[in-house]
Structure to design on (854 residues):
């Protein structure tokens, strides 16, 4: 039986009231309710306030470079396909520095879950605009206002992600459920999480999100319909959808690798003599 | 009379230069000869001018020869450019129906209607290359049956195979009847056939033998054929090769796989390595064992994409900020690359750090006869591993401070131990810290690993007369050319020897200093513009290498080129 104490990590160094706390709680709740032990989990994070999350829970941790939560997560998943691999990034990490990895991990449909703490601003470096900052958002590095934002939901859908969801750090129960579904999903699962930054984003506040978010599961909505999903992906204003926006079954990258059908790569034996059988080709 | 004979095949990209060169090399390797063959090609798919040189010898050779005995010319450029390199009794094979007005003093001109024979006796124009192969073998009176076995391997037993055999015979018979009395004799040797491999193939085989099961890479000349080979063998040998979206992803994926417990590598060239630099430091601070192959080519930036250089030595020694240990190895020859690669994986895991293997286009895409490889000599050392039978997994700390600097490795998900690491400075458990004491302890712990690693570094290879007047100093793929240059010069009574390094970092300072400090003249022979090894020797030993013989035109050294350059220096 997995309990809350199994996931008690170090004391977070986030600002009191930060949206990250809701995400941490939702993640812990999800893995506990799924009965996943810390030893089965690998959390791979990048750099930013989000990147610190793995230290504040328990599990195997690879805290990687800025923008690089996905590549080591992919490498580790292929090396040991039995691990529950969760990559964690902020919006700068995921959609700025790591944008290329995001597109290609979605396209290849690696079997990992990708949690993106999306507070539409840089927190760790103190308040610069991020790739998802609203257009016109004025910061120290964007004195004339930020350019138009990337749309991670639409990008993930058109890039081939098989699970695309959006959560809200202010609704922990909903987010925990969404994370559970993302982990259970076979394939690349993006969960973009609306996360207020109380220190540097005074526009997109808890209140601002609360007034706008609505749950897709409360509507007649089929997440298997790609065109409908793209329509919801473009919805950003008075109404912002949360929940599973798109989900489809498709073969994962790992399922298509013949050697992995023989068990995790890491447990397969090393035998130099196996090279013998290819040497004849060079005669 | 020892046999040492060189063929050159020249033509445009797309004319089959590579194919004829490779098959020719294979035919002689199968007849027991030693081969060294290199490729000179432009960065294009069609047109231009490419050539392929095949040196056939009855003794081990590790370099290309300057002179050409037989030239197979598919275009006029081949004749015009390479005729000056022909030996006096050399022979040029060309299709007189296609190339008109060929003349020149060097070499006998063998006009052969290659295309006509291919159409009449073979299976059409496409078999021109096979006719030329047959003709070339007739000139040296070689056994056509060996070519036939090579053609069957390549084209199969069916119609295509038979047509190629007929085409080869047509070329062979034509030369034997039309050019009587001008032949040389290179009969197959009684020795068993030899394996013929490129440097990249031996590296790939070394990696597989060493138990590397994961590779991620992004295509880049001259390294791409490593990823292609691993991918081709992935199903049969249970390997994974991920063609990543870029070099940054590639190295970070390899690091992720290695962290999870699988031996992992990546391969690229200099400007790809520029993108990977962040990963070198990530492997350094997380103490993740990875092997990085850098097939050097001339830089900076894109430089000369298909050509060779040894310009990355100073780069790989320093690439990344901060102080942490790494190892740098540079195979001396194609066969050596197999064992160096095995060693790289063992060192990476024993010392939990990045190991960089420096090759270059010349080593990567040249062919040499190898072996036989004794796989029973391959040892696998995975370094210090955590055992849950002996120790409490709840007490496990990935970066525990130890006397040797080496901490026990555990792998995530395989036991109860949680494996935590961080690219931030971290405490012994692996959690990020800014504590001054913990920071200092971790830096020192990582650097302590250099001490045992230093002891592993092999002594530089010495060759030639002891106490000679001059020493030629080199590293990596120039070994064969320098070695042979020493032979040439000694035959001319020049008092000379060589000092060659293939294990470059941690630098064997004492061994190098001891070897050179009494020599009146030392020359750094390097395929770069500034003498990067000479600078390293100065930095690590204080010794000034007195002369430099440098080549940075993108082309490899030949023994004759080095010998001549040394003589010009007044030796």
């Amino acid at each position: 039986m997995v309990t809350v104490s199994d996931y008690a990590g170090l004391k977070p160094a986030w600002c009191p009231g930060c949206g990250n706390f809701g995400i941490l709680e939702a993640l812990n709740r999800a893995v506990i309710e799924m009965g996943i032990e810390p030893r089965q989990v690998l959390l791979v994070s990048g750099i930013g306030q989000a990147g610190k999350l793995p230290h504040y829970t328990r599990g195997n941790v690879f805290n990687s470079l800025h923008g690089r939560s996905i590549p080591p997560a992919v490498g580790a998943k292929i090396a040991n396909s039995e691990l529950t691999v969760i990559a964690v990034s902020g919006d700068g990490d995921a959609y700025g520095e790591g944008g290329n990895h995001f597109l290609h991990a979605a396209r290849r449909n690696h079997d990992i879950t990708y949690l993106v703490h999306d507070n539409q601003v840089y927190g760790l470096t103190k308040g610069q605009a991020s790739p998802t900052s609203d257009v016109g958002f004025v910061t120290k590095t964007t004195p004339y206002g930020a350019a138009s934002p990337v749309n991670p939901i639409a990008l993930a859908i058109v890039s081939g992600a098989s699970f695309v969801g959006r959560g809200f750090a202010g609704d922990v129960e909903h987010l925990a459920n969404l994370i559970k579904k993302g982990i259970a999903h076979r394939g690349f699962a993006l969960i973009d999480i609306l996360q207020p930054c109380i220190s540097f984003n005074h526009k997109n506040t808890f209140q601002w999100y609360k007034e706008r978010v609505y749950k897709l599961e409360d509507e007649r909505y089929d997440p298997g319909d790609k065109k409908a999903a793209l329509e919801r992906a473009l919805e950003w204003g008075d109404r912002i959808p949360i929940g599973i926006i798109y989900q489809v079954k498709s073969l994962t990258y790992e399922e298509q690798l013949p050697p992995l059908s023989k068990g995790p790569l890491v447990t397969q034996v090393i035998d130099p003599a196996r090279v013998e059988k290819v040497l004849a080709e060079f005669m | 009379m020892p046999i040492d004979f060189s063929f050159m095949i020249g033509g445009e990209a797309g004319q089959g230069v590579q194919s004829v060169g490779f098959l020719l090399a294979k035919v002689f390797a199968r007849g027991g000869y030693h081969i060294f063959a290199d490729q000179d090609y432009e960065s294009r798919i069609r047109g231009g001018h490419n050539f392929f040189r095949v040196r056939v010898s009855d003794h081990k050779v590790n370099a290309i020869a300057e002179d050409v005995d037989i030239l197979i010319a598919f275009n006029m450029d081949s004749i015009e450019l390479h005729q000056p390199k022909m030996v006096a009794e050399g022979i040029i094979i060309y299709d007189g129906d296609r190339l008109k007005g060929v003349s020149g003093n060097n070499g006998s001109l063998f006009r052969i209607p290659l295309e006509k024979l291919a159409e009449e006796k073979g299976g059409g124009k496409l078999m021109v290359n096979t006719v030329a192969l047959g003709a070339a073998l007739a000139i040296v009176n070689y056994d056509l049956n060996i070519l036939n076995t090579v053609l069957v391997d390549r084209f199969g037993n069916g119609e295509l195979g038979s047509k190629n055999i007929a085409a080869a015979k047509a070329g062979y018979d034509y030369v034997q009847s039309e050019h009587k009395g001008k032949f040389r004799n290179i009969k197959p040797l009684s020795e068993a056939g030899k394996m013929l491999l490129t440097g990249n193939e031996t590296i790939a085989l070394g990696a597989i033998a060493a138990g590397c099961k994961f590779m991620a890479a992004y295509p880049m000349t001259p390294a791409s054929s490593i990823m292609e080979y691993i991918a081709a063998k992935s199903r049969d040998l249970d390997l994974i090769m991920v063609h990543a979206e870029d070099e940054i992803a590639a190295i970070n994926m390899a690091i992720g796989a290695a962290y999870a417990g699988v031996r992992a590598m990546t391969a690229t060239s200099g400007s790809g390595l520029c993108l990977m630099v962040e990963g070198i430091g990530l492997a350094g601070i997380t103490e993740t064992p990875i092997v990085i192959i850098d097939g050097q080519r001339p830089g900076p930036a894109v430089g000369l994409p298909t050509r060779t250089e040894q310009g990355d030595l100073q780069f790989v020694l320093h690439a990344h900020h901060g102080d942490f240990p790494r190892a740098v190895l540079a195979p001396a020859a194609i066969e050596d690359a197999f064992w160096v690669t095995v060693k790289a994986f063992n060192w990476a895991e024993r010392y939990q750090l990045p190991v960089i293997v420096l090759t270059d286009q010349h080593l990567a895409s040249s062919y040499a006869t190898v072996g036989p490889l004794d796989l029973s000599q391959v040892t696998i050392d995975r370094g210090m591993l955590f055992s849950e039978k002996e120790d409490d997994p709840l007490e496990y700390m990935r970066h525990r401070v130890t006397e040797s600097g080496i901490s026990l490795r555990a792998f995530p998900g395989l036991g109860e131990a949680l494996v935590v690491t961080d690219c931030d400075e971290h405490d012994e458990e692996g959690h990020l810290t800014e504590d001054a004491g913990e920071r200092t302890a971790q830096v020192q712990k990582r650097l302590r690993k250099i001490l045992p690693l230093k002891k592993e570094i092999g002594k530089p290879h010495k060759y030639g007369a002891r106490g000679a007047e001059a020493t030629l100093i080199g590293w990596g793929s120039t070994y064969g050319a320098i070695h042979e240059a020493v032979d040439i010069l000694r035959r001319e009574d020049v008092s000379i020897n060589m000092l060659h390094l293939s294990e470059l970092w941690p630098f064997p300072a004492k061994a190098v200093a001891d070897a050179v400090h009494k020599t009146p003249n030392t020359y750094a022979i390097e395929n770069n513009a500034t003498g990067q090894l000479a600078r390293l020797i100065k930095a690590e030993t204080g010794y000034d290498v007195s002369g430099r013989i440098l080549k940075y035109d993108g082309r490899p050294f030949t023994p004759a080129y080095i010998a001549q350059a040394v003589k010009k220096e007044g030796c």
